[in-house]
Amino acid sequence: MSESFKARDIGLRAQKKILGRMAANKNTRKIFIDDNTASLLDNLFKMIRLYTDNKKEAEKLVKHIIKTVIKIGVLYRNDELNAADMACAERFKNKFHAAAMAVLSFHEVDFTYDRQYLLSALQEAHANLRQLVQNHLKEKSLQRIDSVFLFFTNPNFLDAVFQRNSEYKEILDKMVEDINYAMDEKHL
Fold first, then answer.
1. Cα(117)–Cα(12) distance, rounded to whole angstroms?
2. How far apart, in Å, are the Cα atoms of 34 and each of 40, 41, 142, 177, 180?
3. What is the distance between the alpha carbons of residues 125 and 129, in angstroms, rounded to a whole number?
C-alpha cells in the first residue's frame, strides 16, 4: 500500500480550488477582502476597463489578482511556506511596496514619473511572486500571475496613466487614497 496519500495535501488542494472558485463570486469576495482593498480593486477595474475598453478583460485581470491573493493566503495560513518561501515573500512585499510608493510619488509630485523605475520594481515583484508560488500552485495560476504583470508592465499603459492631464486622473486619485489608507493600516 502506498504511503504517498495524505489527507492534509488533498484538503489543501480542495481549499485552494474552492476558494479560487469562490473568488469569482462578488458576494463571496467580501468575506475575504476588506472594504479598502475592495475599493482599490474596483478602481483598478475601472482603470483597466477605461484603458482596454473591454469589460471582460478588466474583470478577468481583477479576478486573477483576487484568486492569487486568496491562494497565497491559504498557503500561508496552512503553514505551507518554508523559510525560503517566506524570504521570497518578503522580497516580493518590499518590491511591491516600492512600486506602490512610486505610484504615490508619481501621482502627487508633477514631473517625477519614471517609467523605468516602475517597470523594474514591478518586474522584480513579478519574479519574486512567481518564485514564491511556483512549487505550490499549478501552471494555470502561474499564467494568471503572468497575465496580470504583463498588463501592468505595459509601457503604453503606464505612460497613459501618468501623463499630465491623464484621462485616468480621477480614478488614480481614488486609488492613491486607497493605497495611502492601506499603507497607514500596514496592509501594503
1. 37
2. 10, 11, 25, 15, 15
3. 6
pTM: 0.81
The values of phi and psi at residue 148, to 5°, are: -65, -50
Please name the residues in contact with 30: beta carbons below 8 A apart, sequence gap of 6 or more: 38
The label of the residue with cell 523605468 reads 116
For residues 161 and 94, give the distance between their C-alpha atoms in angstroms, rounded to a whole number: 23
Cell of 108: 502627487
Is the distance from CB of 166 to CB of 151 less than 8 angstroms? no
Tell me the pLDDT tens digit for each residue of 97-144. Answer: 999 999 999 988 888 899 999 999 999 999 999 999 999 989 999 999
- The secondary structure element, H or E, covering residue 67 is helix 55-77
